[in-house]
Amino acid sequence: MNETSDRDVLERLAAPELRGNPYPLLRWLRENEPVHRTEAGFFLISRHADVQWALSRTGDALVVPDREEMARQFPAAGDHAAIGTALEIFGAMLRPGYAALRRMMSRDLARSRVARVGESILVKGAQLIDGMAERLHDGEAVDFHQEVSRPLTLAVFAELFGIDEVERDCVATDVLATACALEAVSTEALEAADAASERVESYFRLLIADRRRSPRDDLMTALVAAHDEDVDRRGDRLILGLLWVLWLTGFDSSAAGLDRGMQAILDHPDQLHWLRGDDQQAAAFVEEVLRYDSVILLTPIPRIAARDIEFGDRMLPAGAMARMVIAAANRDPSVFPDPDRFDPSRDNRPTLSMGYGPYYCNGAALVRAEMSIVLTMIHDRFPDLVAAGEPVWTEAIGTANGIRGLDRFPIRMGGTR
Q: 155: part of which helix (H) or strand (E)?
């Protein structure tokens, strides 16, 4: 049966019944239309080998769209600040200095800074878990996403940048509202995104100026210092572009990772011995969570084919815009035997959950640290958790930032009602 005969693939992926389990459709796509042209005009690449190749050849065979190309895709950009912000981000990403800033940040996040926030993850995780313990023991349902995943990851992420507690929720809300501009279907939604974009842009500029005047021991200061020393500043567009990308994909992906980990705890009790072992075993559990139920549905940054590209017997024509379906690639049986089985003992080195090549996720080490620490902690504290209802998925399917996220995730203690 042709899975796309009645509705477009993107429309089907947005259907409520597929938000939690898109994998049958993604399997059909990978096996039947591995280079699929959507009704929106861009292509979806879904086989593992093709996705990995495309990610590794970004900047060569495939390029990030420039401002002019994005303006053609979004002709309303001239009238809306939020879409204009998206175009500025893409423009900044094409300049050489952006890559240098990104490499510096990746090194910083992958080493000492993540090690230093490990204690913060432990402390904040324990506080949040303590906050719901009494209700769980009394038989009540609690919302894991709203009470643990989101507040923990947002607090840790904001702490890295030195953003005050009273401001972090507003910044996070406005960043996500701005991302929705690229999917907005009403004037009201676009106007709300415009206002959010202007608030965030103003706040980021104030942060940059503050760190120039008064450096601190945070990631914002490190970014500003590296930018000012080694990069042509040009009105701070480079650093602003990087900040937007970080906040569009940062804490939200970490929260989704924790939610996926909790779902794995509920769905695979026979594998929980991995969380009762050493750090290496917990890390293996986390890697399988990230492969088995991908946080990233498809790449948020599109690529444009610089020439005709053959993917096996399929062709991506020159000038076409493509996005890689990470969730489909991570269940490709040519790389992961029996891919629909949750198995932390498998070799997950080929997993593409954190990207590949020049756009490998800057915060990969942070996501893994948060998941390993918090999932181990909560399983040790509450070994018999069960679902207290169906998770509530976000309305968007992840075309703005690529993330499959939850709004609600009710859990309770086993044996209670």
A: helix 150-161
1 belongs to a structural domain = no
pTM of the model: 0.90
* Dist. CA 350–CA 356, nearest whole Å: 10
* Token representation of residue 202: 């103003």
Q: Which of 193, 198, 196, 228 is closest to 213 using CA atoms?
A: 228
Asked if the structure places residue 3 within a domain, the reply is: no
Does residue 101 contact residue 237 with C-beta atoms inside 8 Å? Answer: no
328-368: per-residue pLDDT in tens? Answer: 999 999 999 999 999 999 999 999 998 888 778 878 888 99
Complete DSSP assignment for 169-195: HHHHHHHHHHHGGGG--SHHHHHHHHH
Strand 392-393 with 406-408, pairing: antiparallel
Specify burial of residue 183 (Cβ count, 10 A radius: 0-12, 13-18, 19+): middle
| Contact (CB, 8 A) for 124 and 156 | yes
Q: Position of tokens 């021991």? A: 217
Share of the chain above pLDDT 90, in %: 50
Q: Which two tokens stand for residue 390?
A: 């169906």
How far apart are the C-alpha atoms of 166 and 368, rounded to whole Å? 26
Tell me the per-residue pLDDT of 134-180, one tens digit each, with 9 for 90 and over: 999 999 999 999 999 999 999 998 988 889 888 999 998 888 877 76
Which tokens sit at 233? Answer: 């500043």
Domain interval for residue 55: 9-413
Buried (b) or exposed (e) across 249-274, using 16+ Cβ within 10 A? bbbbbbbbbbbbbbbbbbebeebeeb
What CATH number did the domain enclosing 165 receive?
Answer: 1.10.630.10
What is the total count of domains within the chain?
1
